[in-house]
Amino acid sequence: MTLKPFFIDHMQTITLRTLLAGLWCLFLMEANAQAKYTISGYVKDNETGETLIGANVFLEKDATTGTVTNTYGFFSITLPEGPQRIVVSYLGYQTYVEDLDLHANANLNIQLIQGIAMEEVVIAAKAEEEDDNVQSTSMGRVTIPVEQLKVLPALLGEVDILKTIQLLPGVSSAGEGSAGFYVRGGGADQNLVLLDEAVVYNSGHFLGFFSVFNSDAIKNTTLIKGGIPAVYGGRLSSVLDIQMKEGNNQEFQGEGGIGLISSRLTLEGPIVKNKSSFLISGRRTYGFDLAQPFVRQTDFAGTNYFFYDLNAKMNYQFSQNDRVYLSGYFGRDVLTFAQPGRDFQFTLPYGNATATLRWNHLFNDKLFFNLSAIYNDYQFKAGFEQEEFKFDIFSGVRDYTAKFDFDYFPSNNHQVKTGLHATHHRLTPNIIRGNAGDTEFENTAEAKYAHEYAVYLQDDWKINPWIRVNLGLRATLFQQTGPYTSGIDGQVYDGGEIVKTYNSLEPRMFVTTTLNPNTSLKAGITSTTQYLHLVSNSSSTLPADVWVPSSELVKPQRGWQYAAGYFQNIRKNAFEASIEVYYKSLKDQIDYRESYVDNSVDQVENEFVFGDGRAYGTEFFIRKNTGALNGWIGYTLSRTDRTFPDIENGRTYPTTYDRTHDLSVVANYRLTDKLTAGLVFVYATGKAFTPPERVYLIEGELQTDYGPRNSRRLEPYHRMDVSLTWVPNPASQKAFRSEWVFSIYNVYNRKNTFFIYTDYETDLQSGTADVNAYKVSIFPILPSVTWNFKFK
Amino acid sequence: MKATLKLIAIGISMSLLVSCEQEYIPPASADGPKYVVEGYIEAGQDPTPTYVLLTRSFDFYGEFGPDQFTESFVHDADVRVSDGSIEVALQEICLFDLDPAIREQVAEQFGLNADSLSVDFCVYLDLLNQLQPQSGKTYDLRILVEGDTITASTIIPMAVPLDSLMFEPPPGEPNDSLARLTCYISDPAGVKNFYRYFGSTNGGQLETGFSSVEEDLFFDGKSFGFQLFNPATDNGDVDPEEFGLYFVGDTMTLKWCTIDEANFDFWNTLEFARANQGPFSSYTRLQSNVTGALGIWGGYNVNYYTLVVAY
Predict the structure, then answer these.
(1) Which of A539, A646, A699 to mutate to test the interface with B (most CBs of B within 10 A)?
(2) Number of separate helices (H) and strands (E) present in chain B
(3) Domain span at residue B293?
(4) Residue A706 in contact with residue B283, Cβ under 8 Å?
(5) Which of A51, A104, A284, A504 has the fewest Cβ atoms within 10 Å of its own Cβ atom?
(6) What is the pLDDT of residue B19?
(7) Does residue B8 lie in a domain region?
(8) Are B150 and B230 in a shared domain?
(9) What would the pLDDT profile of B141-186 be if each residue is shown by its tens digit?
């Protein structure tokens, strides 16, 4: 027995026991003879009626007595009888203060006003004592307001939430210009990406260069890269929780933009004022559409590419206690390559569709309930056609999910969440159907089915003013079901019959020790299990990559993350700073075997090999939230590696996304009322890659013999982008307002290597050869301009 | 308006497609060269005599000239092939040591012109065809060289000849100077079959295209027609309209082979590695069936078809 596995196993046992003991304590909550009353309600934007997520609600005289609004903007706070002054604060909004004389439970719906008022300075001085960054138990959690995104430089003017989160410490990019991301050494499939609770299985357009999230339709984005609360599960490394806007329930309004790549239009307004609203938002690219007159004159007439997104949402408040939300997303990439002269056509449509129906119900002022019914579907199809020959490949994932979630606020010292989630998965591997004339072909691949269940309980518990813990336990059950024919013993399973069962207990425990109102120490342990897997043979995940379930052939991936951090707010919360260290242990990781070739005809699970991974690092983060100059600096020092017995005889190697150093500087500077400047600078250790070391002759041509996997590094990656946002009439009260965003990507034209390829020319007759490798960079300096507008 | 649209289209295309390319020089290999085996054993119609090329790999950054190629051949190795009952020692011959007439014959086998050859091409050969390779048999290769042992094994599978083949007009717009080749085959059911083909035009060297191997996972037990691309058109100089097609009036020779799974895996990985070099590609190691060296020891069951391109 080696010391480390023993230590980790022992730690895991201790963690579970501690957690169970802690949860038991939940039921032994303190009794208090003094009369107390509960104030509950929603916090909203006064202009649009949008609920505000994560707003602070606390007592002015004792800021440690407080709470934050949940995902639906709801809060519940229990206070002693008598006069109380309540403060409600939210970043970017004027702080709200209300005096109450409490003699009964009260309902309080608070409307915050956007912008900073003069009296804010006074309130902020008092409000500094309650700050989520320092006092909450959340670790590795960052919320990015969409408005902040819109003034940052963007590749070709396309504002992209996934590219912005790559600028946070602990998050690395899948490559130049890519919306793909890796969190604290986890794989690309280990990020749980949610849009209104629906899982988005492929979050990229145009081979991952743009994300599917239209910023105009998004209200809130939260990335959790460390302490994942028990309410979330199913992925090892991170949660990216994105909520769509609900729609303005006060008045009709629209916004949109015209850019180089795409145009956007969003319409929203009340259906019944104060009770019901809608939002509909669309985005579509048109670069190739504009080129069609010229394409039609070539041998490739009919060739085109575009992508589009459509978001829609509506809600209705039946009563103070009942609200219903219905939201959906539909997006597609559509590539058509045609060669009419040869009667050849290739089509590649793929994309996501999601739908979420939610019912919020208040059983009483302390018990909030949400029922969600969720549908999501990712489909990929590639079709080839030439005369009588036809060939199609399909793959995809379709889920039906039901979630029952309760938020219980028994006292100010406890916020309890519990719930039950159930999902039915259908995962379609690469199914191939083709025909040559009357002869039909197909492979043996068939859709796989599974049920996934989770039940969780978590309590955010203020033990005393200095110590706060978040104890959670998530229990999961995963069953692969028929119809299925075993690849091991040939046994045939009927529809619904259980093929293989896995389960897991996932403790989550986070502790915050407040040293003073501005400083805290935090530590956390997170256990996660992942039952669905995406394995890629590419340097970045691609739309054709196939999700597979845990099965008789594939075990679930399991992870443990240990993290600790020092959090400090400086100068009356103007600055938030943190240092976090983490160690992540990953079991049953999956990769393709060496020499894997994507023939798309076989059971892909037969090509997998299994191993372990680990990641550890230190993250430094400082963010300035207020003033004319705001932004952040993030730096990560980290290491990520994998060990697979069947890859290079178990040699431990770094992953392609291992970055020893990763620095991001993000800044906005409000020059005048009309002009805001933005800057992004990134620096990262060069990407690890597998170098060509030798060449050798086969059939008179040179072939490559590669060195050890990921044993070399590209040169460091660095880049600076700048932007300038110009609002011609900032004080305009007109119904129609607009702004221009000028952006320059890669302002000093750095030639960052995107990939390397080899090129050989051999002539045995003369005994000569040209052996060359080339570094290719794709995005030079790229200026762009976008015109955004709003109207009422 | 049209001019504006054109400018926008050009601008977008330029922005998206512009890229920069620089030469990359990888670091030197610390481990030095490796042995490379390229050996074939054939049964069936007009089989090529069994032979093995034994060379050393080149460092990626090294020099490449006639001397380096000549020096890459490994001499004085003990190369033996066994079918379980007989074992034959292959004889090393180097082209520069042969009489001009024989040199020309041997060079031609490898697609070389003996008169202008700059490399002293050496091969280990079953000169007297003692092995008499047969389908269904396993052939083991064992090489002792400079204290190292290299081994490999291959099976010559049963032959699956084509039922017929014919040239037809090309798809799409009429073009009476081009033709496509359609072959018909009856794939035996219940057994894994692997195929490889070579093509030559007007008696030239047999060559392979970008995709020369196929397995029958898709069409096990089926009788059907399929197209075979002309390997000669698989290079960047060919008009896209002519890609894969044959030229009416030429004489085309098709070498159609069945191979074993290990042989298929090697060529499949080789062709995948060659084609899969792009922005999102990962590296692919060739899946060799040789232990102690890089390369391939491959058994083939061969059928030849020669016909004039016409329809």
Answers:
(1) A699
(2) 4, 19
(3) 164-308
(4) yes
(5) A104
(6) 57
(7) no
(8) no
(9) 999 999 999 999 999 999 999 999 999 999 888 889 999 999 999 9
Give me B42's structure tokens. Answer: 């054939």
Task: Tell me whether residues A439 and B22 touch, CB distance under 8 A.
Answer: no
A198-199 and A575-592 strand pairing: unpaired
- pLDDT score recorded for residue B35: 97
Does residue A402 surpass a pLDDT of 90? yes
- Residue at A632: amino acid letter: W
Percent of chain B with pLDDT over 90: 63
One domain for residues B102 and B169: no
Residue A499 neighbours by CB under 8 Å, 6+ apart: A479, A480, A481, A482, A484, A486, A493, A551, A552
Residues B2, B15: Cα–Cα separation, whole Å? 20
Do B241 and B172 share a structural domain? yes
> Cβ–Cβ of B24/A598 closer than 8 Å?
no
Cα(B304)–Cα(B203) distance, integer angstroms: 13
Residue B278's pLDDT is what?
66
Residue B240 is classified by DSSP as G
Q: Which residue has the tokens 């490949």?
A: A393
Residue B26 is assigned to a structural domain of this protein: no
Query: Contact A469/A512 with Cβ under 8 angstroms?
Result: yes
Asked, for residue B2, whether it belongs to a domain, the answer is no
Q: Same structural domain for residues B45 and B70?
A: yes
Query: Residue A643 corresponds to which tokens in the numbers above?
Result: 């060990």
Tens-digit pLDDT profile for residues A15-30: 445 545 544 444 444 4
Question: B134 and B244: one domain?
Answer: no
Please check whether residues B185 and B302 belong to one and the same domain. Answer: yes
The domains located in chain A, with CATH, are 36-130 (2.60.40.1120), 141-242 (2.170.130.10), 243-535+549-791 (2.40.170.20)
Averaged confidence pLDDT in chain B? 88
Tell me which of B37, B60, B184 to substitute to probe the interface with A (most A C-beta atoms closer than 10 Å): B60
**Residues B252, B302: one domain?**
yes
The full length of chain A comes to 792
| Neighbour tally for A271: CB within 10 Å | 13
Nearest by CB: A597 against B21, B113, B284 = B284
Residues within 8 A of A (CB atoms), B 110-169 only = 110-113, 116-119, 121
- Spell out which residues of chain A touch residue B226, defining contact as CB-CB under 8 Å: 436
Domain boundary among B155, B173, B196: B155
Task: Mark yes or no for CB contact A441/B222 under 8 Å.
Answer: yes
Number of domains making up chain B: 2
pTM for this entry: 0.88
Same domain membership, residue B214 and residue B90: no
State the average pLDDT over residues A180-195. 93
Percent residues over pLDDT 70 in chain A:
93
Give residues with Cβ within 8 angstroms of B132, minimum separation 6: none
Domain boundary among B101, B124, B155: B155
CB contact under 8 Å between A537 and B34, yes or no, is no
Question: What does each C-alpha distance from A6 to A3, A36, A379, A558 come to in angstroms?
Answer: 5, 48, 44, 17
> A461-474: b or e for each residue (b if 16 or more CB lie within 10 Å)?
bbeeeeebbbbbbb
- B278 touching A, CB under 8 A? yes
Nearest to B22 by CA among A752, A296, A28, A5: A752
pLDDT of residue A119: 40
Closest by CA to A250, choosing from A230, A276, A282, A224, is: A276
Chain A residue numbers with beta carbons less than 8 Å from the beta carbon of B296 are: 698
Which residues in B lie closer than 8 A to residue A436 (C-beta atoms)? Answer: 224-226
How many CB contacts within 8 angstroms connect chain A with chain B? 227
Chain A residues lying within 8 Å of B8, measured CB to CB: 290
Per-residue confidence (pLDDT) for residue A124, from 0 to 100: 38
ipTM: 0.91
From A530, A13, A618, A487, select the one nearest A238 (Cα to Cα): A530
